[in-house]
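[Help] Beginner question about ligand-bound structures

Sorry if this is basic. My supervisor gave me a protein sequence and a SMILES string for zinc ion and asked me to "get the holo structure". I don't really know what that means in practice or what format the answer should be in. Inputs are pasted below exactly as I got them.
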Amino acid sequence: MPLNRRDIIQLASAIEERREALREEIHREVARGRDESYAELTGATHDRGEEALADLVADLGNAEVTRDLGELRDLEAALRRIADGGFGLCADCGGEIPLERLRAQPGAARCAACQTRHEKTYRS
Ligand SMILES: [Zn+2]
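Answer (accepted):
No worries, everyone starts somewhere. Holo just means with the ligand present. The predicted complex, written as structure tokens, is below.
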């Protein structure tokens, strides 16, 4: 059953909340790791957005931040899919991603089977 409008609105607001929380977490982590970069970071992200944040964070090599940033990117991509109508469809097989899976992980781009396959491929 395709997602209805209400489901999508709920998931979109969950994504936006999670995105804000992740941004705060990333900024906190970065500030803790390297105090002097914090002013630079907030200044840069104000003007240039997530790409600038990504570049700065990549330099820090903080595993937790890197993971948070990956999740943040997934969420940004999910919001774009909501905007262009592809949300809730598996990026690999085109099948519908179950609502339960999206509720647990609204940034999911693939159904569970394709995600498992993707991770195996990616690892090896
Ligand atoms: Zn799939």
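A couple of things worth pointing out: DSSP finds six helices and no strands in the chain. The mean pLDDT is 84. Feel free to follow up in the thread.
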